[in-house]
């Protein structure tokens, strides 16, 4: 990597980290170089994705994801690279070609390992009293078709229904989309 872009990247990182307020508050209203909002959820397109410590092939691989469809959050953009965060809070850089705009989510990843009998209920309609069509373990990847701000229509292993939006990682609180 040429020296100038690396220095520019480091200067940008320093400016964002010390921008007087929280970088998170700035990110909520920000748009990336792609013109798309930051942060935003996407999914991993490839079955094998290297998470790098910086935005270039020159940087070391910190982690390797081995499953396509995993939801991740883009929190920063630099050239063709996206800084992502996963449900566990791990952050690093991935080339944009390895990401998909297809929305997926993890069911209650914060409940993994909390014992047996812990499930997220998928319901036939977006109502708390609607019939349960599936009971999904925490940490399962689901495809998300739309969210209303309170409920998300999802599909997993042939089962389709609605999940409470607060019980998944892959959609922001109150976010609505089709």
Structure description:
There is one protein chain. The protein is mainly beta and 178 residues long. It is 12% helix and 42% strand. It is globular and about 50 Å long.
* Percent range for β-strand residues: 35-45%
> What is the N-to-C order of secondary-structure elements (H for helix, E for strand)?
HHEEEEEEEEEEEEEEEEE
Number of helices, where a helix is a run of at least 4 consecutive DSSP H or I residues: 2
Say how many strands there are.
17
| Radius of gyration over C-alpha positions, nearest whole angstrom | 18 Å
Distance between the termini: 40 Å
> Which structural category fits the helices and strands?
mainly beta
Which shape, going by the Cα principal axes? globular
Q: Largest sheet at a glance?
A: 6 strands, antiparallel
State the low-pLDDT regions, or none.
1-27
Q: Roughly how much helix do the residues carry, as a percent range?
A: 10-25%
For the residues shown, what is the average pLDDT?
Answer: 88
Oligomer: single chain
Structure in a nutshell:
By secondary structure, the protein is mainly beta. It is built from two helices and 17 strands. The strands form five sheets. Strands 10, 13, 14, 15, 16 and 17 form a six-stranded antiparallel β-sheet that branches.
